[in-house]
Amino acid sequence: MLDDSEEEDGSTPGTGVSSGGIDHYTAPHVDLFIMDPDSFVYNPALLDMPDTESAAALCDVFIYRFLTMQPVLHGPSLKYFLTGQGNYLDLSLDDPAIRALSFAVFYAAIVTLQPDECVKLFNVDRQSALTRYQFATELSLAQADLHRTTELTTLQAFMIYLVGLPNISSS
Question: What is the residue extent of each domain of the chain?
Answer without folding.
Answer: 17-167
